[in-house]
Amino acid sequence: MDETKKEKKSNVTFSPEQMDEIQKLILGSKNDKDVSNGREAISRFTNTRDPKEIVTCPIYRFDGKFVIGFEDYNKDPYRKQPKYYDLKLDIHRKLADQPFVTLLLSNDGKEIEKKEVPVIDYVTKRIKVIIEKPNFTIENRTRIEGNGIIAPGGGGTFAAEMASNGQFVQPALVKMETKHVDRTFIINLPGFDKPVEMIEAFLA
Known about the structure:
- By secondary structure, the protein is α+β, with helices and mostly antiparallel strands.
- It has one domain (13-203).
- Helices cover 18% and strands 37% of the residues.
- The strands form two sheets. Strands 1, 2, 3, 4, 5 and 6 form a six-stranded antiparallel β-sheet that branches. It has a three-stranded antiparallel β-sheet with strand order 7-8-9, with no helix packed on it.
């Protein structure tokens, strides 16, 4: 009876929608303009309701070592976005196109072991360790992404400026830009000589 339940539990497949969620989980994409999303992101790192201060942050252990990052599978120099998972055959579950991640594991920051595991194994077998202040600090790094140019006009009725000679003034082109604030956690871990830098996505 128990073995049947275990078998059913292990045969997990992922839909394209779930794959998108996995990438978001690892990559930590968020919209800074959405206040509610921002509060949800903060709530992952603190037990308090105050959104102004983060007093704890989680870090995970796997196979007896700290998970200090994920290897980037992206090898295309023209692809700007990192890719922290890859689809492969899970030979133990006999399932194709399963998401795998390569964990960077260490207990001292000097010797780093790379271990590729299915995402489902990482999520179910990892152990959470709560780090409290003052054992970590946070750096907010701002980046601007260009989203093209807003062309004047674009059809429909719009206001236009007219010069003193009666000629319409050509509207200036406006750049579309998105401002993102990336949060980096600088954590002092036991047994490490130097602090470890972790992007927010790795702590999700």
